[in-house]
Amino acid sequence: MSGEPLVVVLIGPGGVGKGTLARRLVERDGHLWLSRSWTTRPPRPHETDADYAFVGREEFAHAIGEGRFLEWAEFHGQLYGTPRPTPPAGSDVLLEIDVQGAEQVRRDFPDALVVLVTAPTEVALEERLRGRGDEDAHVRARLRSAPEELARGRRLADRVVVNDDPDRAAGEIVSILEGLRRARRTPS
Question: Where in the sequence is the domain holding 124, given as residue range(s)?
Answer without folding.
Answer: 7-35+91-185
